[in-house]
Amino acid sequence: MSPITRRSALCAGLSLAACSFPPIASAHDATAGALTIGHPWARATAGAAKVGALYLTITNSGEEADRLLGVSSEVAAKCELHVSEATGDMMTMRMVDSLEIPAGDTVSFAPKGAHVMLMGLMAPLKEGTTFAATLRFEKAGEVAVDVAVQGIADLAPAD
Ligand SMILES: [Cu+2]
What we know:
Blueprint: E1 9-10, E2 14-15, E3 30-32, E4 35-43, E5 50-60, E6 66-73, E7 76-87, E8 90-96, E9 99-101, E10 105-109, E11 115-121, E12 130-137, E13 141-150
Parallel strand pairs: 1-13, 4-13
Antiparallel strand pairs: 2-5, 3-4, 4-5, 5-10, 5-11, 6-9, 6-12, 7-8, 7-11, 12-13
């Protein structure tokens, strides 16, 4: 359970959550056991949107798979793990209970793909701010990250 600090941008959503956590100057990637968490970020949200999305990468340099079991953050009432699937021309998203992080692999959460859905934002996510989130893994335990809020149309982490 090492707290990790990192900045990245958080994602996207539209909503109202305020990310009024003190910005933490970023360190970059966070590590916990065999896992390295890269570039947590989210998009700024607009208006009264109540949902946002958090993106990041998780690299497992160990010999055993781990599983991301959940995410929590004070900016949202609840965080869900979503995967996106293309069905014809439509992109649909589906909630999953957990996500495997295979040994020797990197799992990316990015726009149009897997994401951590921030449900019930407390306030809009404002570009240039950061907020705290905690990832919970089966083996690596809890990992704290700082999520950087980027522009509302950004497709990738800024740094
Ligand atoms: Cu979603």
